[in-house]
Amino acid sequence: MAGRLPGFAIVSRVGRKSGRAYHTPVNAFRNEGGYIIALTYGPESDWVKNVLAAGSCDLLTRGRRVHLSDPRIETDRSKGWAPLPVRLGLSLVHAPQYMRLS
Question: How many angstroms from the chain centroid is the CA of residue 29?
């Protein structure tokens, strides 16, 4: 369901050490020029490290697959980029960082 519901998506990427394909459910939102993915698992998560190392990933969102590149980690303590319910959830898990991809 994560690949079809608004605000949710599945990141597909290859492990930087194992070379295996992995898929992780995330909160993702379209913005001008690409997508923003909330780092609810933290910036040190393996999926984040894998995407940064590869420089790209695929995102399954609302039933379609999008290839994204140029991943960057950014911090916004206000979480102003996110819808209000998501901001509240991110505040509860102390997740001010996100990944921006184009």
Answer: 8
